[in-house]
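Dear colleague,

Following up on yesterday's call, I've attached the two folding results inline so they're easy to grep. Please treat them as preliminary; we haven't cross-checked anything against experimental data yet. The first protein's sequence and structure tokens come first.
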Amino acid sequence: MRSNQVTFATLLVIIAAADAQLSEEDKATIVDQHNVFRSQVDPTATYMRKMKWDENLKVVAEQYAAKCVWDHNPDLEDTGENLYATNGAFDPTKAITEWYNEHKFYDYDYNNCTDGEMCGHYTQVVWADTYRVGCATYLCEKLQGLAVEKSTLFVCNYYPAGNFIGEKPYENGDSCSKCPDDFSVCDHNICAPDIILSTTGPEWVTTTVPEWMTTSDFSEAHQMPHTPAGTDGPDGSTAGATDKEEIGTIRETAADMIPYIIQPAQACAVMAKPWLLTLLMTVLFTYVIH
């Protein structure tokens, strides 16, 4: 009987880990959502490369997410990173949308964030040169650095990295006016390769981005060192960290002050998908008849 209990407990762990993996549909959604938001930058970009999925970046994200640490990967060099955590049902569209919603705190002319706010997730999402993304999720019993249990950690890595201090995420001008020769196709304001392997793409939208509730969600953006903080404004003045926060500054949000409320259905990873229930019931039935 004890052997059966141990085996069953192990099965639960395996099922929970499998459920934390991103599906092919999730991967497509992540890429599509990035490209949708990259196509909608305001002001418009002369050059914005089309994003695609990268399995190597996914592996990097996967290995780091499994550590369940609420801080950035210290081993990254030329790779960017965005973090997101929630103790609710994980939705990649919601996560990326929350990153994008930081655009309202970003001043393109001064290349800085509004005082007391973050915008580094947004600038990484729309960094013109970045064209590869790989992400992973992990169900963390405890997330080191946050007082929360049973949360989903979502890690996205980007290549090449964005968020270089002193540099803007893209150059303002007519859309696709400076696409390079090997990315000469203008696809919804994005510079795409001359040969497009897939005819299917994201469902392009221009509607207002929804305001997601963030009482259970957290984000962190990775900042790359490059040039001194503070850039010339439109009038020639300098807006430094005393006026506005640097792009990518990691800080706690108001949501950090609010206690987590974990609903029973959210706390059990085994209940997340119907096929898991079927597998679980089959195993239980097998144990009963034996």
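Below is the second protein, in the same order (sequence, then structure):
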Amino acid sequence: MHMPPLHGWGGLEEIVTDNGTLFVTALKQLAKKYHI
């Protein structure tokens, strides 16, 4: 997955989701990749 630069908009303030399996898995992968 390619992450676009956020310097033009800043970071996210809130993510609204239904905690679906696909979303949770993708979020865990991003957290691991970016060490957050």
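For the second protein, one point worth flagging: The CA atoms of residues 14 and 27 lie 14 Å apart.

Best wishes,
A.L.
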